[in-house]
Amino acid sequence: MPKACAYHILVKTEKECLDIKAKLAKGADFGKLAKQYSLCPSKKRGGDLGEFNKGDMVKAFDDVVFKKPLFEVHGPVKTKFGFHLIKTVYRS
């Protein structure tokens, strides 16, 4: 089964997501922004979700992690939890 490791930042609104993405584009640190803004408990680890299997996450999230280029920040990605910025660091 395919596995991946990704980091993410979860926020309530698309606008907030886009504002954070703009900060990242200017060179801000993903982990620091995750700790500051993310609503997910993973924020304590800088947004690190660790390794997970394909199908463990909701479809919209999985589609980004398993299909989009590695090491790029993708989003906003809307799920039932809110809006995500996602950075995949590896997958198999």
Describe the structure.
- Helices cover 32% and strands 35% of the residues.
- The protein is globular, with a radius of gyration of 12 Å.
- Strands 2-1-4-3 form a 4-stranded antiparallel β-sheet, sandwiched between helices.
- The chain is α+β, with helices and mostly antiparallel strands.
- The protein has helices at 14-25, 30-37, 59-67; strands spanning 3-11, 48-53, 73-79, 82-91.
- The chain contains 3 helices and 4 strands, in the order βααβαββ.
- Belongs to the PpiC/parvulin rotamase family.
- Residues 1-90 form the PpiC domain.
- It is an enzyme of class 5 (isomerase).
- One of its GO terms (molecular function) is peptidyl-prolyl cis-trans isomerase activity.
- Keywords: Cytoplasm, Isomerase, Rotamase.
Which SSEs are present, and which pair or pack?
Blueprint: E1 3-11, H1 14-25, H2 30-37, E2 48-53, H3 59-67, E3 73-79, E4 82-91
Antiparallel strand pairs: 1-2, 1-4, 3-4
